[in-house]
Design a protein that fits this description.
Radius of gyration: 32 Å
Largest sheet: 8 strands, mixed
Helix content: 40-55%
Number of helices: 10
Shape: elongated
Strand content: 15-25%
CATH topology of the largest domain: D-Maltodextrin-Binding Protein, domain 2
Number of domains: 3
Length: 306
């Protein structure tokens, strides 16, 4: 149905007079009368009752009037919505992350900042393994993903360092090392049983931990693997063994578990990278990258003040 016809009909209903509606629409009365007559013929129903001094809308006309208001409002909003999409103020942002990254407070802080700055943009979150997340960027399923390693070379993807998270040791509170007051040398963990986050679920973190142990001169004795990083804490609390975990994990469980800093050379860290495909036309991605830049600067300033 023609937008201009609906706009003319709305003017007539609101003015209750064709002459006044014609003045409002800046047109002559005869063409306006023909428009209304054409609408009635098109719908095969009487929309207006002609009165000696004006018109009165019929029941069918009232229904058309309400529908016309909705259609016109939607039509008027279209240019602004298109502009909003172009400026990244609406639409959907797709973010992926591995399980261990999702436990770090930087991610909810980033999401909160983005939501405050761009409230009309919906955010879709996906937790998965690093290989699947890399594929999701290559296939344009996700706009940005957060991993414990940079993207493989040769895929045309960008890797932005976000932060370096220290690795710490988590152990049962009755462990022989639990009473040690200072940070624990990584090599001192060699004699003890390890509980680790399963490599299939957290390949990057698993490989990082194993590399740190190899550099310290030993291969950890793994007696149990857990399907998720947080579930490994149950096994540690039960006394199955100790584990090396990202520092942020200590905020999730401290019952029957003692956390200690680790000393090693090079330092034991679990970096976090933002991986994305360079696309200047993806304005929502550019907004995220700007927020990440500010967040990274704040983290660096905080670390420098320590």
């Amino acid at each position: 149905m023609d937008i201009h016809k609906l706009n003319a009909f709305v003017a007539v209903v609101e003015e209750s007079n064709i002459s006044r509606a014609a003045v409002r629409l800046n047109m002559q009365q005869p063409p306006l009368t023909r428009i209304i007559k054409g609408l009635e013929d098109e719908l095969n129903v009487q929309l207006l009752k002609r009165l000696p001094r004006g018109v009165e809308v019929t029941e069918a006309g009232k229904v058309l009037y309400q529908e016309a208001l909705t259609i016109l409002a939607h039509a008027q909003a279209i240019p602004q919505r298109v502009k909003n999409i172009t400026q990244g103020l609406e639409g959907q942002l797709n973010i992926g992350f591995t399980n261990s990254v999702g436990l770090h407070p930087f991610l909810p802080a980033l999401l909160r900042s983005f939501r405050e700055a761009f409230p009309a943009v919906s955010i879709h979150l996906e937790e998965d393994g690093s290989n699947s997340l890399i594929d999701s960027i290559s296939n344009d399923k996700n706009d940005i993903v957060f991993l414990r390693k940079p993207a493989p070379i040769g895929l045309g993807l960008n890797s932005l360092p976000v932060l370096d998270e220290p690795l710490i040791v988590a152990m049962p509170n009755n462990h022989p090392l639990a009473e040690q007051p200072d940070a624990i040398q990584l090599v001192a963990l060699e004699p003890y049983d390890f509980v680790l986050y399963r490599r299939l679920a957290g390949q990057d973190l698993f490989d990082n931990i194993m590399a740190s142990c190899y550099q310290a001169g030993f291969s950890p004795k793994i007696v149990q693997e857990a399907p998720r990083l947080t579930s490994s804490l149950n096994l540690i609390a039960a006394g199955i063994g100790l584990s090396i975990v990202p520092e942020a994990i200590r905020d999730f469980w401290n019952k029957q578990i003692v956390y200690k800093s680790l000393k090693a050379e090079p330092p034991c860290i679990a970096p976090i990278y933002a991986v994305y495909k360079d696309n200047p036309e993806n304005v929502r991605l550019q907004h995220v990258l700007q927020l990440l830049g500010r967040q990274h600067h704040e983290i660096q300033s905080h670390n420098n003040q320590r």
